[in-house]
Design a protein that fits this description.
Order of helices and strands: HHHHHHHHHHHHHHHHHHHH
Distance between the termini: 107 Å
Number of strands: 0
Shape: flat
Number of helices: 20
Structural class: mainly alpha
Amino acid sequence: KRREEKRREEKGRVMSASSSSNGGGGGGSEAGGGSGGRSSSSRKVRVKKYIASRGMNTKAGRKAVVGALGDEGELILEALEQIAAIFTGDEQTGAAMRDDILKIAIKAKILWDEKVLTEANTMHARNPVNSVSVQVVQTLNRDKITASHISAMTGNFSRIGFIIKDMLKPHLSEDSMRKVDDIVAFYSKPELVTAFCQDGKYSEQREALRINLSVLLGSILLEADVEASRREPAPCRAPMCNKPRAPVRGLFRGSQFCPRHHLQRSQDLVEHPRLKHFIGDEISKHAAYLVAFLKQYSEHHKKLRASRSSSNNNTSSSGGASVAAVNANNGQSTTGSDSGKSSPRSDSMEAKEEDIDVVADMPTYHLMSAIQTYKGLGRYLRLSRAKAIYDKYLGRAKSNSYVPLPKDLVKSVRNKILMSNADRPLPQSLFNDIHAILTRRMNVAFDAFLKSPIFQQYVSSISLPKYVVNRLRREDAAAAKKRAAAAQKKGEAAAGTASNNTSSTD
C-alpha cells in the first residue's frame, strides 16, 4: 500500500508539471507546432505525447511510467533490458533499449486513453499478439527448445512487428517510428532469439518472461492449454489420405488437411488472391477477414464524406463534376452544373474519393453475398429469394441496407420478379448486371484490403510455419533422389539383361 501511495504521489507531480507546461506547446518532434487546420484534440494528444517523452528524462517521470505498467510489466521490461545488455555486452545499450520501449509504450497508452486507438481499429492486432505471446510461453515451458521452435517464433515476431508498425504509423512521428523499427529488428534477430532460448546466460531472463507473461495472459493461456489437450489428431480430409491434419502453430490457425495437401490448396490463395474467395458467409474463414476490414474502412470513409460535405458547404458550388463521376461509375449519365468546374487534378481526386465511398459499404458486400447464394438455388426456389433481395437491398431507399443502383436496372429486375410464376421461373442470370456493378465497386476496396495489415494477418493464418514448409521440401528432395536412384538401378539391370541375352545368342 505504501509503495502504491508513493507511486501515485510521484505520478501526481509529473501530471502537475505536465499541466503547467501545457500552454507552452513545446518544440519537440511529437508536439510540433499547431497549425490552424488541426483540431484541438489532435494538438492535445501531440502535446501529451511530447510531455511524456520529455518526462522520461526525469527520475520521477520514469517511475510514474513504470508504475503504470504494473509489477509484471515492469519485470518483463527489466528482462528485456538485461537481454539486450547481455547480447551486446553493453549495459548502456540495454538502458537505451529500455527507454525507447517505455517511450513507445506510454505514447501508445495516451493514444488509447484519448480514443485515437480503439477496440475497433486494433481488433486485427489483438489475436496475433495474444497468439505469439502464448507461443512464447509454451516454447519456454519446453524441456528442450529446438531450432524449429526458434525459427517459428522468430518469423512470428517479424510479422507481429509489421502489424504493430502499420497500426502506429499514422499517429507517431518519424523519429518514434524509427525507434519502433529498431526495437522490432533487434528483438527479432535469429541469433538473439537462439541465444536467449538456448544459452545458459539468459536463464534468469527466460524464467522472468515465462512467469510474468503467464500471469498477464491468464485466461487466454488457460484456454489455449485446454484446447490443445482436448484436440485429437483428426485425419486429413483429402481423398485417400490418412495423415493427421496440420495443427495450430503460432499465427497459423490450423487446417482440415495435412500439411502437404494444405500447402497445395493455400499457395494459390496467398500468391493470387481473388475477390470471389472472400464473398460468402461472414463466419467463413476467408470472408471474416474482408468483413472485418470493410467495417473499419466504411467507418473511416463515412467521416471522410462528412468532412468533405462540410467543406463543400463553405465553398462555392463545385459538386457537379463529382456527381457526374459517381453516376458514371454506377452506370448512369447525369449532367452536372458547369458553374463550379474545378481543375482536372481535383476532379480525379474527387471521383476517386467518391468511388471509395461507394465501395466501402457493408450493404454492398451483403448484396453480393446474397446474389451468389441466389445463383446456387434451384429454379423453383429463386422467386422467394429474389423478392427478399429486392425488398431488403433495392426497394426501400431509406433502409440502412439500401444499395444505390441505376434506376432502370432496378426497375427491370422488379418487372421480371412481378411477371414470374411457377410456369415462368426466374432465370439464374437475373442479377448479373447488378453483380457486375457491385464487383467493380468492391474491387476498389479489395485492392486496399490486399495492402492492409488485416490481409497480412489472413496470410499468416493460412500459411504453414516456415519450418514445416522446409521439412516438406526436404522430404520431396529425398523422395526425388530415391526415385532417381531406383530408376538408375533399374536401367543398369535392364542393360545387364540385354548384354546377357546378346552373349547367349552369340
